[in-house]
Amino acid sequence: MNMKKVLSLLAAGAFAMFAFAGCGGDQAAAPAGGDKQAKVLKVGSSIDFPPFEFQDEGQKDYQGFDMDLIRAIGKEMGREVEIQNLGFDGLIPALQGKSIDVAISGMTINDERKANVRFSEPYYQSGLTMVVRQDEEAIKKFADLKGKKVAVQIGTTSAAEVKKIEGVEVKELNTPADCFMELKAKGVDAVVNDRPVNDYFITKNAAQGVKTLEEKLTAEDYGIAINKDNEELQKEINAALKKLKENGEYDKIFAKWFGEKK
Ligand code: GLN
User: Fold this and answer.
1) Residue located nearest, by CA, to atom 8 of ligand 1
2) Which of 13, 67, 156, 191 has the most crowded CB, counting CB atoms within 10 A?
3) What is the CATH number of the domain that holds 238?
């Protein structure tokens, strides 16, 4: 009798422990802060901008500085990151239409864009430079572009800046790769594009027959773009970015893609 009672008590105890453990397990699996944070972070990027975002042939995952950074930010926020490849000029409309939560795409922070989206704190210092053919003699600086044909990526700061230079014929193409191809094919005399992307193109792709010029047309900061209504998300992104800068993770990602500390 006694033994039966002891056994049933033990069983009840074991059941309680099991139930408690199970419950604890569930709680641990649920992200802190409820399902708002459990949501996937929908990221848009124009995957044509090495070393910030690109896809190698035969590789499933998108690669690059921005891709590593946004994955690290997502991890910091406890959110799974899902990246969609969109045209650069489609990123702000996608944010406005809420089909994505954020855009990370080497996007320069400027006032015109600030009218439509929020930006995170700056995460990379960039600027515009120019690429010409190796044998180019006439173009040594931006002022020499008068009367010349220049390729730029559509919807970019390069497009906006080159249009300001008087007497330039501007060809707006879909990707920087299209611009470089056009330069080599002699359809244009120069390409204006972001400095780190030009440098990467020249060195990593062992681009032959072209050179990048020293002069910088602008200094620009990249930011992560967020829907204008979502101040909360902007704060969370900034907090995560700050944390990654403090804990050395940002520096690690930077060194991976640019070799040296900023
Ligand atoms: N930084 C430039 C801009 O914001 C180019 C960005 C890009 O082509 N991905 O317009």
Assistant:
1) 156
2) 191
3) 3.40.190.10
Neighbours of 243 (CB within 10 A): 15
Residue segments in the chain with a per-residue pLDDT below the cut of 70: 1-38, 205-207, 260-262
Identify the burial level of 149 via C-beta atoms within 10 angstroms of its C-beta, where 0-12 means exposed, 13-18 middle and 19 or more buried. middle
Residues 8 and 114 in one domain: yes
Burial of 224 (0-12, 13-18, 19+ CB in 10 A): buried
In this structure, the dihedral spanned by the alpha carbons of residues 188, 194, 200 and 205, taken in order and rounded to 10 degrees, is -20
Compute, in angstroms, the gap from residue 229 CA to the centroid of ligand 1. 23
Residue range 11-44, pLDDT digits in tens: 554 444 444 444 433 333 344 444 544 589 999 9
What is the domain extent for residue 106? 2-125+221-258
Asked if residue 51 has a cis previous peptide bond (ω within 30° of 0), the answer is yes
Same domain, 39 and 147: no
My answer on whether 142 and 180 are in the same domain is yes
129 lines ligand 1 (CB under 6 A): no
The reported pTM is 0.84
Examine the domain organization and report whether 253 and 173 are in the same domain.
no
The number of folded domains in the chain is 2
Of 153, 151, 156, 154, give the one whose Cα is nearest residue 112: 156
